[in-house]
């Protein structure tokens, strides 16, 4: 009898703890019935900013004029807080470099460790700072792996379909009709890791993204859902025959230099291969290249697929300019690679100097 009572006690303790976690309610929150619904972002603190929307294969502003995002990724807000670099001056520096968009990569592990309420406060700060400089934001659920199988490249990327859906429901509720928050990148880099994460299936992936978009659109139609292709967000070929069956969608690609290795590494061959894998989609739908960049083989954090001698930069910019493709370079951080800056004095690296010059010439 004693064992039965102890087992029952353990069962109810575990069950109660699970319910607390599921409802995001602390053990001391006994008056749970008085918890208010989450508040939306206070738009009164922002200056007017045009909504960016999809029209055909282009992005357009409120006047209907064509618009291209050109900007930088930063490190995750929670990482920058830990390193005392989460501040408005970071956004001011990026504005001086010439960006009109900043991508915020939010890792699932960081979202959980920081906690929803505290993380939303960080995103709120990003919205205010970005808006002050007429910069837009891409919110990126930064996971790598094949979500339907629940298999990922590293523990920092582990999430679930339910957590991913709940994240986007939370974000869409919070930032409804806030033009500064322009793009929701549903999942950073879908990949089956060469079979190590199962077998990626486009129709399965398409159906999941459509479910997420339905949740987003139930809260906010003035935002652009962004859907990534396979092979670490590189391959968009399935889109040509089976696009996402929802309006207002754009597609993401991460065409790092070593994604293609033509026998003759000239511009014509790279253009042909890039067109085949992702560029042709731009004739029908908007593309936002949300990661690109390079580092020399002896540079900080050199790894496949980002190693290059620098010839990649001018080629990829010319390719995207010819096809009216938006882009966001990776990454404005001295640790994550390929890095744009050597230090927190914002000393540009080789690729940083290149992209800074391109941005400031726009």
Question: Your description of this structure?
Answer:
Keywords: Glycosidase, Hydrolase, Signal. Residues 60-333 form the Glycoside hydrolase family domain. Residues 1-27 form the signal peptide. Belongs to the glycosyl hydrolase 5 (cellulase A) family. By secondary structure, this protein is an alpha/beta fold. It has one domain: TIM Barrel. It has twelve helices and 14 strands. It has helices at 2-23, 77-82, 88-97, 108-114, 116-132, 161-174, 202-219, 230-233, 237-241, 267-277, 312-322, 350-360; strands at residues 53-55, 58-60, 66-67, 70-73, 101-106, 136-141, 144-146, 151-152, 181-185, 189-190, 224-228, 250-253, 287-289, 326-329. Helix 6 (161-174) packs parallel to helix 7. The termini are far apart. The model is unreliable at 1-23 (pLDDT under 50).
């Amino acid at each position: 009898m004693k064992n039965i009572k102890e087992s029952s006690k353990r069962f109810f303790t575990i069950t109660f703890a699970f319910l607390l976690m599921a409802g995001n309610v602390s053990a001391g929150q006994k008056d749970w019935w008085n918890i208010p619904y989450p508040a939306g972002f206070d738009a009164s603190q922002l200056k007017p900013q045009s909504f960016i929307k999809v029209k055909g294969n282009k992005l357009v502003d409120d006047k209907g004029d064509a618009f291209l995002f050109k900007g930088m990724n930063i490190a995750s807000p929670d990482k920058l807080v830990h390193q005392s670099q989460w501040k408005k001056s970071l956004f001011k520096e990026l504005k001086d470099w010439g960006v009109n968009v900043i991508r915020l990569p939010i890792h699932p592990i960081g979202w959980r460790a920081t906690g929803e309420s505290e993380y939303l406060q960080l995103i709120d700060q990003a919205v205010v700072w970005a808006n002050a400089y007429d910069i837009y934001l891409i919110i990126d659920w930064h996971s790598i792996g094949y979500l339907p199988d629940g298999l990922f490249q590293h523990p920092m990327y582990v999430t679930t379909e339910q957590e991913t859906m709940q994240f986007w429901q939370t974000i869409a509720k919070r930032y409804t009709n806030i033009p500064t928050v322009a793009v929701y990148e549903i999942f950073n880099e879908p990949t089956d890791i060469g079979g190590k994460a199962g077998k990626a299936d486009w129709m399965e992936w398409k159906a999941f993204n459509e479910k997420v978009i339905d949740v987003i659109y139930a809260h906010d139609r003035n935002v652009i859902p962004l859907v990534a292709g396979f092979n670490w967000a590189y391959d968009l070929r399935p889109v040509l025959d089976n696009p996402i069956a929802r309006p207002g969608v754009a597609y993401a690609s991460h065409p790092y230099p070593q994604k293609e290795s033509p026998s003759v590494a000239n511009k014509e061959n790279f253009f042909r291969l890039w067109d085949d894998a992702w560029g042709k989609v731009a004739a029908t739908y908007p593309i936002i290249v949300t990661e690109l960049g390079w580092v020399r083989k002896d540079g900080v954090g050199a790894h496949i697929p980002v190693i290059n001698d620098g010839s990649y930069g001018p080629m990829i910019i010319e390719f995207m300019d010819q096809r009216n493709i938006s882009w966001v370079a990776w990454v404005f951080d001295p640790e994550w690679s390929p890095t744009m800056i050597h230090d927190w004095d914002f000393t540009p690296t080789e690729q940083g100097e290149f992209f800074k010059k391109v941005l400031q010439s726009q």
